[in-house]
Amino acid sequence: MSGQLAGQVAIITGGSRGIGREMALLFAREGADIAFCHLDDEAGAAEVAGGIAALGRRAFHRSVDVADSDGLRGFIRDAEAALGPCDVLCSNAGMNLRGPFETLPDEHFDRVIAVHVKAAWVSAKAVWDGMAARGRGRIIVTASQLAFKGGIGIVPYVTAKAALVGFVRALSREGAPKGILVNAIAPGPVTTDLTAQLGEGWAERTGAGLPIGRVGKPAEIAAAALLLASSPGGDFFVGATISPNGGDVMH
Ligand code: NAD
């Protein structure tokens, strides 16, 4: 199927590489104009914007720290001014600060919560009234299967991702009557720059422990986002957290 998002506008945080890059290019392939932000990755952003343009769609992008609430609101306001009202918001930007609980400073906890949880709150608020007025919108949050599985040395990250599962469960109840469908994706391990930090052999070791025998690809997560963004595929998902994860966590 093609043209599933024809004429729509998608705003994606963290769209310059990894999972967000694949969402941007897939959504553009399906007919959407794309606004995305990133953090100090102008080269990646230019490459993604070029890919969107090559697909005949418009791109708008900016470096902004999603933990800077005013900056994030300004990006969304300017993106809508440039491309039109947001039909699909993907709150996807993310990072991790790792370390044993005993030694991780409060500042790291605050930072991880701000980048994932506060930014999801701020970005959803920024598009909410417009979506409600139009009676239609999709909000898709990138959580993580680690919300269910936990992990060593990543207490702030797991806390943030689990909070996002609760966030979509609560917000979706307010959104559905207004036509705004709010859901999350909880990916399993995927090869991106984020997981490249985990060192040589991570993908092989981790993949070997999964029923499917390999780690995931960003395009496989973007496909789940398209399902939630599209119609009729996404029409009956409300407050769900769907988890493409190679069988690592089954629920
Ligand atoms: P990545 O490092 O490849 O890309 C992250 C993107 O987010 C980049 O565009 C980066 O510029 C942007 N970004 C990071 N911090 C930002 C900030 N403060 N402000 C604005 N932009 C920022 O990472 P990825 O693996 O593609 O991760 C995307 C999302 O998927 C994240 O929320 C991550 O937690 C989640 N996730 C990843 C995996 C995985 O295995 N890779 C698994 C589960 C969930």
Automatic annotation (TrEMBL):
Cited InterPro entries: NAD(P)-bd_dom_sf (IPR036291), Sc_DH/Rdtase_CS (IPR020904), SDR (IPR050259), SDR_fam (IPR002347)
GO biological process: monocarboxylic acid metabolic process
Pfam families hit by this protein: adh_short (PF00106)
Domain of life assignment: Bacteria
Coiled coil: none
Family membership: Belongs to the short-chain dehydrogenases/reductases (SDR) family.
Protein name, entry field: 3-oxoacyl-[acyl-carrier protein] reductase
